[in-house]
Amino acid sequence: MMNKKGAIEFSMTTIMVIIIGVAVLALGLTWIRGTFTQVGTITESALENAETIFGEVGFTGRIGAPATIIIDTSDAKKYRVYVRNTKTTDATLSMVTAITQPAGTSCLTQAGVSTGTVTLRPGEQTEFGGGVISNSCPSGSSGVIGITINDGGSGYATEAIAVNIA
């Protein structure tokens, strides 16, 4: 009879260890998942900041902008356009943008585009900002943001940013 009682006690202890082990494993996996999600968000933010910084450092001409923006099917992204006055006189600069998409597609819209004018002395630089919104664009579709910087009424510099829908 004592052997049977010992067997029951052993199996209860085993069951408790298994339950505690599964609970700790579940909590551990949840914590790891949350940590990796946070790391992914921080990494994406850091890469966007690095792109902005490197764009600023590597900017040597009249105009500098990211070559490509990759955006999800229903998302929004900001971009910066760096402009330098390379003339020997003051320049009053403004930015105009236009989005071009393939025929039959019109799911990209502009957002928060800088519309004011800035007067720069020779050698000075500034930045204009803008954004693009993807309104349920099909994955794999694309578009182009055409950027024109005007000095007064005349063209000063142009640039294009490719928009790819992930």
What does this structure look like?
By secondary structure, the protein is α+β, with helices and mostly antiparallel strands. It folds into 2 domains: 1-58; 61-165, Immunoglobulin-like, CATH 2.60.40. The chain has 1 helix and 9 strands. It has one helix spanning 2-57; strands at residues 63-64, 68-71, 74-84, 91-100, 108-111, 117-120, 125-135, 142-151, 154-165. The chain has a 5-stranded mixed beta sheet, with no helix packed on it. Strands 1-3-7-5 form a 4-stranded antiparallel beta sheet, with helices on one face. The radius of gyration is 28 Å and the shape is elongated. 17% of the residues are buried. The mean pLDDT is 85.
The count of β-strands is 9
Query: Percent helix among the residues?
Result: 25-40%
Distance between the termini: 69 Å
* Highest CATH level, the class of the largest domain: Mainly Beta
For the largest beta-sheet, the strand count, sense and barrel status come to: 5 strands, mixed
Number of helices: 1
* CATH fold descriptor of the largest domain: Immunoglobulin-like
Amount of beta strand: 35-45%
Give a quick rundown of the structure.
The chain has 166 residues and is an alpha+beta fold.
Core attributes:
166 residues, alpha+beta, Immunoglobulin-like, 2 domains, five-stranded mixed β-sheet, four-stranded antiparallel β-sheet, 1 helix, 34% helix
List the helices and strands and how they pair.
Blueprint: H1 2-57, E1 63-64, E2 68-71, E3 74-84, E4 91-100, E5 108-111, E6 117-120, E7 125-135, E8 142-151, E9 154-165
Parallel strand pairs: 2-9
Antiparallel strand pairs: 1-3, 3-7, 4-6, 4-8, 5-7, 8-9
